[in-house]
Write a structure and sequence with these properties.
By secondary structure, this protein is an alpha/beta fold. It contains 5 helices and 7 strands, in the order αβαβαβαβαβββ. Bound molecules: flavin mononucleotide (FMN). Pfam families: Flavodoxin_1 (PF00258).
Amino acid sequence: MQSLYVTVVAIVLWLVLCAVTWRIHRSRQSVEVKLNATVLIAYGSQTGNAQTIAKNCAQALHLPEKCVIALNNLTFEHLQQVEKALFVVSTYGDGEAPDNASLFIKHMQDKCLPYAKQKVRSLEQYALEHLEYSIIALGDSSYPDFCAFGFELNQVVAKTGAQLLGGVITVDNYEPHTTQLADITPT
Ligand SMILES: Cc1cc2nc3c(=O)[nH]c(=O)nc-3n(C[C@H](O)[C@H](O)[C@H](O)COP(=O)(O)O)c2cc1C
């Protein structure tokens, strides 16, 4: 009886593990886009604010919808294709990435490994030196780690040799109807 119980528990655990692995695999699959564009906008957004800003920016720049990508679907190869990237990201949890952006930093770090192993250059430095980027970081200054994910993202992207235009632009407590441009502060 006890061995049956152990077997059932093992099967359930195995199924849970398979489901988690499958979910991670699915969310990591890149949107198979050949961008054919020089600009892309990537967002990380838990409740939609950053995503809305990303879409509005795309509209203002007359970019097609396919140029607006969730960070979990953005790959290093996408960034190699474009000249400019705008990241619009919020921070969640205790200074963490939103769910649809939580895999990107690991992805970029994995891309560093071959370069680090070859000891050509430390990390993948200068691999994206053609790229210029901006970051709009949404957060709430009542949290101790204000806009932490935006700043973390900047550190990782900067390691590739890409150039940050201006500073990380922080937006405190974004509210769609009341936030003014003046509330958006480069740091
Ligand atoms: C549960 C929760 C945790 C949050 N954690 C942080 C945080 O650690 N740092 C921060 O600056 N903002 C934090 N925020 C604020 C959000 O980043 C902010 O509300 C943002 O506008 C949400 O944008 P989004 O809808 O694109 O996710 C948090 C908000 C919630 C609801």
